[in-house]
Amino acid sequence: MKIPTFLLLSLLLTACGRQVRSQDLSGDAKLQEKIVGTWRSEHGVVIFGPDGRSSSSFTNGAKAWTYQENWVVKDGFILGTVADVSFQNTTNHEPVGHTTRYKVLLVDDHHLQYVIELKDVAGGITNSLSR
Question: Is residue 105 one of the residues assigned to a domain?
Fold first, then answer.
């Protein structure tokens, strides 16, 4: 039985189209998808939006910080760029425009663990959040 060329070509293109649509997301895209949502720690909360914006608020005794950031995952790091900041009882904060790198160590449905890269702290600071 001879299959018409247009039918064969049509089936081939359909199969190729399915393969492209079913390809896995890149590692960074998968990581970003897992990170979206609300995460809590002993001292605050971080909300990572699917639109690349995040908000966080933290306290340490009488000190308090609230950040609005733009975020993306690149090469296994969360890159957070400060869009707005407010603070109380402290002058220690990151300025608008500053980008912080957070190396993701672990993320699953309930835990997010990362290392904040800091210039003046060798090895950074490890933080854990949960939901």
Answer: yes
